[in-house]
Input
Amino acid sequence: MRPDLDIVAGLVGSGVRVLDLGCGDGALLEALIEQHGCDGLGVERDLDDFHACISRGVPVTHGDLEAELADTESGSFDCAVLSLTLQAVRHPDRVLTEMKRVAPRLIVSLPNFAYWRLRAELFFRGRMPVTLSLPYQWYDTPNIHLCTLRDFEAMAQDLGLAIDSLVPLRANGRRAPGNARLARNLLAERAVYALSA
Output
């Protein structure tokens, strides 16, 4: 399991009904069900990852998470998770709005496109960065909405979401230094947010 998913699992908690959007191979959802006593459902678009979920015995639906969210009944879950997926959806604001409709608590992790090494790569090399956290070339990336932590926090505020906690991270899943808003925007490669309406 990716190192940051331990933090996500800790923020989800135990014994809750959880919706894991863009659940990948199902590792997080499997851990939540087996180790935290959660009742969960995953949504995954990629067919290989969907089959990996099935192999793990994880309840999953195959489809586009934006369409699946629209068909999900309000208040169906206690917590909705979107892990390193927000930047790849067509309408991030609508996804967050739908997530808060189906669950009162949201856990969102995302890459930080304001990380200082990304800025330096762009400044000094004049090319879009390729890193451990963002391993794609500009022409084959699934990331269609590039945002910084400050951008995300502003959108959350606009959508009426309270930030209950924030964990700034390095690519290896360890905490990034700096608690001040500017420092974490420069020093965190990614972050995990716990949000509520």
